[in-house]
Amino acid sequence: MSSSDPAIERAARAVELPEPWCDSAVTVVLPTYNEADNLPVITRALLALPLSALRILVVDDNSPDGTGEVAEKLAEELDGRLSVVHRTAKEGLGRAYVDGMTRALDAGADFVVQMDADLSHSPEYLPEMLGTLLATRAGVVIGSRYVTGGVLAEEWGLHRKLLSGWANFYVQRLLSLRIRDVTAGFKLWRASTLRDIDLESVGSNGYSFQVEMNYRTVLRGHKVMEVPIRFEERQRGASKMSFAVQWESALMPLRLRRRRRDLRP
Asked: CA distances (Å), 256 to each of 30, 101, 205, in order?
């Protein structure tokens, strides 16, 4: 991997926040499954950001391609700025995030980032997301594809764009969420918000995890902000979107709607 990788170069040019914002205790939770090629790149890009107290927590689901071993080597090289959780099986995206976020909170993080390890979410947006959260007193900031200025990678075909657009419309209508990118997976959370929504009781395990987290946040009265991002196509590896994941994502909004009273404070 070269330090001239575009993701690393963009991160090094990211917006610089004033003190003490740039020294905030931010932990980035990266769930991984077969991301051995991507992990070193996104790690270097994250650490190139002008955020002095940023830490990375890799949650690996026993990747057969050796991602866990790559993560351990990076942890040794980075002297405390990266740590690794090894899980014994592929238990799903939602469970990986709950595990990683809980550990980040227990370790004292004031802000927790969730993002994909495949470089579809560019680290360069994190300072802007943190600045937006602090300036607006939001509970969470979403890196959004569907607000003004948001962009989808040109590699996305018409079918994927229609599927993504329909998923957002479907969830917004069922759950009455005034969020433009309700299925987004790139978010920066305030620690107090994660504690308030009862993270441990989140039941979604696939991509519907994003929807349930948003729904709980809105029902608890926390402010949600969106900032535009360019959503990139993964350059290495394969997508983890299976039929089972899509089916769960279709059913979960209906289940959440039925549980509305239970999820309110």
From this structure: 26, 21, 14
Smallest CA-to-CA distance from 171 within 221, 208, 224, 217 is with 208
Q: Are strands 55-60 and 26-32 parallel, antiparallel or unpaired?
A: parallel
The pTM of the full predicted model, rounded to 2 decimals, is 0.90
Spatial contact of 32 and 63, defined as CB atoms under 8 Å apart? yes
Q: pLDDT tens, 224-260?
A: 999 999 999 766 555 555 555 555 656 677 777 677 6
Which has more confidence, 235 or 61?
61
Q: What is the pLDDT of residue 92?
A: 84
Instruction: Give the Å distances, CA to CA, from 38 to 31, 34, 95.
Output: 12, 9, 21
- Is the pLDDT confidence value at 93 over 80? yes
Q: Alpha carbon of 44 to those of 10, 138, 159, 197, 228: distances in Å? A: 11, 28, 33, 32, 23
d(CA 105, CA 153): 33
Do residues 38 and 66 make contact, with C-beta atoms less than 8 angstroms apart?
no
Contacts of 39 (CB under 8 A, 6+ apart): 30, 32, 58, 67, 70, 71, 74, 117
| CA-based radius of gyration for the chain | 17
Q: Whose CA is closest to 26, among 135, 136, 115? A: 115
